[in-house]
Write a structure and sequence with these properties.
48% of the residues lie in helices and 15% in strands. By secondary structure, it is α+β, with helices and mostly antiparallel strands. It folds into 3 domains: 2-69 and 131-238, no CATH class; 251-361, 2-Layer Sandwich (Nucleotidyltransferase, domain 5); 399-496, no CATH class.
Length: 497
């Protein structure tokens, strides 16, 4: 597990001048190296070494630029796949409209849309890369910040990875509580800069641990705090994962992610619901990156505190955010937030706190919660979904209730299955498709029960006559007066034998 400690540097005025020069040269070389890498030029390392005169920093610059280029290539591949899927959809629409009427007026608009998408796909290229941040660049264009402040904030960090898996001598923490930095000056006797840093009582143990390490990476950063330019060093190193303190011996905690709230359900080892908790979230897409990360971290601490209080591990869905299509801008950003921030951060927090975690298949959790547990517990569908996730994490089976078994036997082959028969959720998928085709889109139990009684042609297509055992609990007009009594009656397994 990677761990990072933060210390504040206190350079003298003369050292501050040299340190700022390192920030400028390093980041200028990084921008120059990225441009050469995109153009595909050869001998990039030699050109950068001739520019800055320090081979150790050049190696780190090349690694960072190659990572940025891979991110651009990934984005380009996703955009090509997305535009290709949209082109296929438009072509299918054109074929469908043509088959009905070759002179339909909609064809003109569809062909225009198809031409636009094809042109956009053929002219697709790397998006412009903004060093620093887009917000900072926009503030400079609007002249909200000066040119000097823009450069200081843009060129805000540098580091040196080194070639071998040993202590990096170019950025080394000394026992005298100083950071030794390799500068770009190649003159003898002027290659190093020793800057003192502060160590408080809490950081004393961190400092001693760092001195005993054989491998760590130092990143030097600068930032404006209270209108003052301050310097920090971030020391990252690997630490062994702590032992699991809270496991699944006495039960588990199910977690259901939603863009505006988190739902937790506590169950015992037999799968019985004990308690639940809902943690609301604000509009995360409206936050800036640092604020969003801090806010999500604060909410996930509540999740971990709940697990440690109950002394149980956590079960979450094995979510995948790979998609060949796009939602609206806000929803795309919410999905990216979960992918890049929340899930990875939760995993690291679980490891750090010693909370065991499991990932389960996310399919049909809401459907099982709706059809099986909504009437039993009378809770939100999201809370019940987390209940299903917790039970799935304990390897408990979700058997189909007798009423749904009887229902599927009456329908026969009228419902086309979407899943293979070997799937453990094959029958749940058929039940969901049955109600979906019957016009039920609500998660309310009352509508589901009402539909079971009233759709006579679906339940018994051969005769269209409702079975006698379902007449009990109905009024003379065939309406349900008490859903609770009616459900207890039809949920009796003896009626379907």
């Amino acid at each position: 597990m990677n761990h990072t400690d933060k210390f504040r540097l206190f350079p003298t005025p003369a050292q501050e001048k040299v340190l700022n020069a390192i920030f400028t040269i390093y980041n200028h070389a990084k921008r120059k190296g990225y441009t050469l890498l995109v153009k595909g030029e050869a001998n990039i390392q030699r050109q950068l070494k001739a520019f800055c005169g320090n081979n150790s920093y050049v190696n780190t610059i090349l690694i960072e630029n190659e990572t940025k280029l891979k991110q651009q290539e990934t984005w380009l591949g996703k955009q090509e796949a997305y535009l290709g899927s949209k082109v296929d959809v438009i072509r299918e629409k054109i074929i469908a409209v043509k088959s009905l009427d070759g002179s339909d007026r909609r064809l003109r608009g569809l062909y225009a849309r198809l031409s636009s998408l094809q042109h956009k796909k053929s002219s697709l290229t790397f998006k412009p890369l903004t060093f620093g941040s887009k917000r900072l660049f926009r503030d400079r264009l609007l002249q909200k910040i000066s040119r000097q402040e823009f450069r200081i904030r843009r060129d805000a960090s540098f580091c040196c990875v080194g070639k071998r898996q040993v202590i990096n001598a170019n950025l080394k923490v000394l026992p005298s509580k100083e950071l030794r930095i390799r500068i770009f000056n190649t003159r003898k006797g002027r290659k190093w800069l020793n800057i003192p840093f502060s160590v408080n009582g809490k950081q004393e143990n961190w400092f001693r641990a760092i001195l005993g390490l054989e491998l760590y990476t130092v990143t030097v950063k600068r930032m404006f705090i209270k209108k003052e330019l301050r310097y920090y060093m971030h020391v990252s190193y690997e630490v062994p994962e702590p032992a699991i303190k809270f496991g699944f011996e006495t039960g588990g905690i199910g977690l259901d992610f939603n863009y505006n709230h988190l739902d937790l359900t506590n169950i015992d080892r037999h799968g019985k619901l004990v308690s639940y908790l809902q943690i609301p979230l604000r509009n995360l897409y409206s936050y800036r990156k640092t604020q969003r990360s801090n806010y999500i971290s604060f909410k996930l601490d509540k999740v971990l505190n709940y697990c440690m209080n109950k002394r149980k591990g956590i079960v979450l869905e094995d979510l995948s955010f790979k998609q060949s299509f796009s939602y609206n801008k806000n929803l795309n950003r919410k999905l990216a937030i979960f992918q890049t921030t929340a899930l990875d951060l939760l995993k690291r927090k679980c490891i750090k706190k010693g909370v065991a975690y499991r990932k389960v298949f996310p399919g049909y959790t809401s459907q099982i919660a709706k059809y099986k547990y909504s009437r039993l517990h009378n809770l939100s569908i999201h809370i019940l979904a987390s209940y299903v996730i917790a039970r799935r994490g304990l390897r408990l089976q979700e058997d189909l209730p007798p009423i749904y078994q009887w229902l599927l036997s009456q329908v026969g082959d009228l419902i086309k299955p979407r899943l293979k028969k070997s799937s453990p959720y094959y029958r749940w998928g058929r039940v969901h498709d049955l109600f979906k085709q019957s016009g039920i889109t609500s998660f309310k139990t009352s509508k589901i029960l009402q539909k079971k009684v009233l759709m006579q042609h679906v339940l018994n297509p051969a005769t269209g006559v409702q079975p006698d055992n379902l007449r009990a609990g109905l009024s003379p007009t065939g309406q349900i007066e008490d859903y609770h009594t009616f459900w207890n009656l039809i949920n009796n397994e003896e009626l379907y034998k």
